[in-house]
Amino acid sequence: MENEFKTGFVTIIARPNVGKSTLLNNLVGQKVAITTNTAQTTRKKIKGIVTTNTSQIIFIDTPGIHKPLNKLGEFLSSQTASAIKDTDLILFLTDVSSPCMAGDKWIYENYLKDTKKPVLLVFNKIDTVKKPDIIEENVYSYKQMFSNNIQTVRISAKTGKNINQLLEHIEKFLPAGEKLYPDDEITDQNMRMIASEVIREKIILNTRDEVPHSVAVMIDSYKSDENIDRISATIYVSTESQKGIVIGSKGSLLKKIGMEARLELEKIAETKIFLELFVKVQKNWQKDLKAMKRLGLEEIE
Ligand SMILES: Nc1nc2c(ncn2[C@@H]2O[C@H](COP(=O)(O)OP(=O)(O)OP(=O)(O)O)[C@@H](O)[C@H]2O)c(=O)[nH]1
Ligand SMILES: [Mg+2]
Questions:
Q1: Ligand 1, residues 22, 36, 202, 205: which to mutate, most atoms within 8 A of Cβ?
Q2: Nearest ligand 1 atom to alpha carbon 155
Q3: Confidence band (pLDDT; 50, 70, 90) for 2?
Q4: CA torsion, points 101, 12, 121, 158, in degrees to nearest 10?
Q5: Domains of the chain in sequence order
Q6: Is residue 158 in contact with ligand 1, taking CB distance under 6 Å?
Q7: Residues contacting 237, CB < 8 A, separation 6+
């Protein structure tokens, strides 16, 4: 007898920087979520849709979880909580290069311990650990948290190792059902959203300390002509000095950020891009709900 087609939602949760967005991009085979080495890169839930002959899986990438410290932190947590609510499976992603940490325990206590949803424990970054003993020790420390009562998969989101195995494993948890999206639809992000995120990624990659966490990007206009997309965007920072940093000496850093974003967006949009960037100060926006709303950081359900 033929197996039934499976359809379901899988929410990826983890500490910051474990590789959730890298995994999402690898699963859908294209960049839909930005990734950097700075914690708390992802701010809003992002869907990645994987359709195979046997299933359609809708993955939800979430902001890295940690204790909220300000309004922005509370918003990030709310994104995770709402993503878990309607999911068929929680994919708890961990970094196999270190043992179970306080941050993982916090996630367990707050999101996993009492959930009725099935949880799959996935160990990422296996490409970074060469010693099998270390892997086994670290795996053990996580499994203990679940009293050994948990299914596990080991992957590398970066190299793609065991990604197919992961998909097969996930299918077992999903209900039978019809497709919800056309085969070629891979995300809920449109070019406008992707443009704003790619610009933010290039800022994060080119700055440090407080700056990556103090930046929000708004697309003021996005016009597609026959041979070119014309994008105008404003970068919001929370202090005057950050504005100076992002612009750089004689505008050099802003120019670099703009060029890097444009080159990447041209690949994604498969067209020429004209990109115009402005920088403005919105004082302490991360503590101000109204300002966050204006910057697109609000829950719309
Ligand atoms: N070597 C290696 N690096 C990885 C792997 N997965 C992710 N990374 C790197 O880890 C860093 C964080 O990746 P992200 O995908 O941005 O992590 P995230 O969990 O989405 O982070 P937040 O959105 O900040 O919570 C990036 O520098 C990735 O290139 C992996 O399997 N192997
Ligand atoms: Mg992310």
A1: 22
A2: 31
A3: low
A4: -80
A5: 6-171 (3.40.50.300), 191-294 (3.30.300.20)
A6: yes
A7: 211, 214, 215, 243, 246, 279, 280, 281, 282
CA 234 to ligand 2 center in whole angstroms? 22
Confidence class for position 66, pLDDT limits 50, 70, 90: confident
Nearest ligand to the CA of 37 is 1
Average pLDDT taken over every residue of the chain = 96
Closest ligand to Cα 65: 1
Burial letters 63-102, b for 16+ CB under 10 A, else e? bbbbeeeebbbebbbebbebbbeebbbbbbbbbbebbbee
Residue 59's DSSP bridge partners are: 10, 48
- Kindly list the distances between the CA atom of residue 252 and the CA atoms of 168, 243, 247, 258, in Å, as whole numbers in the listed order: 48, 13, 7, 10
Q: Is the pLDDT of residue 158 over 90?
A: yes
Query: Cα of 159 to ligand 1 centre, how many Å?
Result: 11
72-81 pLDDT tens trace: 999 999 999 9
* Look-up of token digits 């085979």: 29
CA–centroid distance, 110 to ligand 1, in Å, is 23
Written as six digits, the tokens of 114 are 């009492």
The whole-number average pLDDT for the span 14-34 is 97
